[in-house]
Amino acid sequence: MQNVTIRKGNKVFSDAKQFPYGFKKSGDFSIAEANILSAYGDTLFNLEFGSLLPENEEEARFVKVVRGEYEAQSLLEKAWLKYVKLARTRRNFYTMHSTRAHDTDVAEDVDYDGSDLEIEA
């Protein structure tokens, strides 16, 4: 990874609600991205929400990237934006079974009186 002047977080960053098994095991992030989020995520989170003020040009640029003023260039900026997208937007889940099949009115279309049943003793 390139030389980063953004401060490392005071604690390891995690998001147990969205990624309960961690960033590495989520399948959404590369190992490098997961390491960045764990190491720098606390600082990036606080910079994004304004509870930490930027101390250098790279941190000031990161704040502008998060606001949409600049396009992400560094791996750190891209990893954070990817995290934000995955953690804060609703994910679609697809199944192999559609609930639409249960909503059909097939049973109502057929008048069945059971007269063709043969019962053997």
Gross morphology is elongated
Low-confidence stretches: none
Helix content: 25-40%
What count of helical segments does DSSP give?
A: 4
What is the average per-residue confidence, as pLDDT, rounded to a whole number? 86
Report the strand count.
0
Query: What Rg do the Cα atoms give?
Result: 26 Å
Largest sheet: none
SSE order in H/E notation? HHHH
| Straight-line N-to-C gap | 80 Å
Structural class: mainly alpha
Strand content: under 5%
Give the structure's gist in a few sentences.
This protein is mainly α and 121 residues long. It is 39% helix and 0% strand. Helix 1 (31-48) crosses helix 3 (75-88).
Task: Provide an overview of this structure.
With 121 residues, this protein is mostly helical. Helices cover 39% and strands 0% of the residues. The protein contains four helices and no strands. Helix 1 packs across helix 3. The longest helix has 18 residues, at 31-48. It is elongated, with a radius of gyration of 26 Å. 16% of the residues are buried.
Summary tags:
single chain, 121 residues, mainly alpha
Layout: helices, strands, pairs:
Elements: H1 31-48, H2 57-67, H3 75-88, H4 106-109
